[in-house]
Specification:
The protein is mainly alpha-helical. The protein has 11 helices and 5 strands, in the order H-H-H-H-H-H-H-H-E-H-H-E-E-E-E-H. A 3-stranded antiparallel beta sheet has the order 1-5-2. The protein has a two-stranded antiparallel ribbon with strand order 3-4. Helix 1 runs parallel beside helix 3 and helix 3 crosses helix 6. The longest helix has 40 residues.
């Protein structure tokens, strides 16, 4: 009887130990699940805290999988928006175009570009480029022009694009140039629109597109050779090539445009 009681006690203790282990395992799994849910709901904040992830067994791969799902969903939404822009533009998309090698390359590069965007602000411009640049019948642009416009679009931030559009608006009111008080008016307006922006620096950066020209420096042929002249007063102009860039990239497709 004493042996039987001892066996019963040992069996009871073993059951308690196993129950406790099962409870700890379940608790740990729930903690992991809750952690994963928190990452899904607020990925940016939680990803920054993943330094101690090694302390949670098997959580690493699960977190990676969850983040990949979030990222894939975000990228799919951007692709869907691009396709919606093309579909809603009423541009003529034919099966021949879809099968065309150049279209596939250009479209694929635009999709790749929007994948790199942190926000959806510029997707409209990539949609414009595809519709105006390729799906525009006889008015479609050359592959070289498409590549160059895409390169400018890739390089510019959304804020720089807004600065460029507003610069063109101001410059066109002043014969294509901005200097003196007219340039100061532009700076003041941009400071109102973008309070934390360095307007002068952003305008200076826009020169790299070739669409905004700093006219303070120019070359002049003289009897002694080429001379570089510098006017230290601020003087910017809108390059004529901006008109085509605007039509193809900045403006939505218009099938009725002459």
């Amino acid at each position: 009887k004493i042996l039987q009681k001892g066996d019963a006690m040992n069996s009871k203790n073993e059951k308690i130990r196993l129950d406790n282990e099962a409870f700890q395992i379940t608790k740990k799994e729930l903690e992991q699940a809750n952690f994963i849910i928190s990452v899904y709901e607020n990925p940016v904040n939680e990803v920054l805290k993943l330094g101690g992830l090694d302390m949670i067994p098997v959580a690493g791969p699960m977190i990676d999988s969850t983040i990949k799902q979030i990222f894939h969903k975000y990228q799919s939404n951007k692709e869907r928006e691009l396709i919606e822009i093309i579909k809603n533009s009423n541009a003529q998309v034919t099966s021949e175009m879809i099968k065309n090698e150049k279209f596939l390359i250009h479209f694929g590069r635009c999709v790749e570009a929007i994948h790199r965007l942190a926000s959806n602000d510029k997707i409209q411009y990539y949609g414009n480029l595809i519709c105006n640049g390729y799906l525009n019948g006889e008015k479609c642009i050359s592959s070289d022009d498409f590549d160059e416009y895409e390169s400018i679009l890739n390089e510019l931030s959304y804020r720089e694009i807004r600065f460029l559009i507003k610069f063109a608006e101001f410059a066109r009111k002043n014969g294509g140039h901005l200097q003196g008080i007219y340039l100061e008016e532009y700076y003041k307006q941009m400071q109102l629109d973008f309070q934390n922006a360095n307007s002068r620096l952003i305008l200076k950066r826009l020169e790299r597109t070739g669409l905004v020209i700093d006219e303070r420096a120019w070359e002049e042929e003289t009897s002694t050779g080429t001379t570089l002249n510098i006017d230290y007063g601020m003087n910017y102009s809108l390059d004529p090539s901006y008109d085509d860039f605007e039509r193809v990239v900045l403006l939505a497709y218009n099938p009725n445009e002459k």
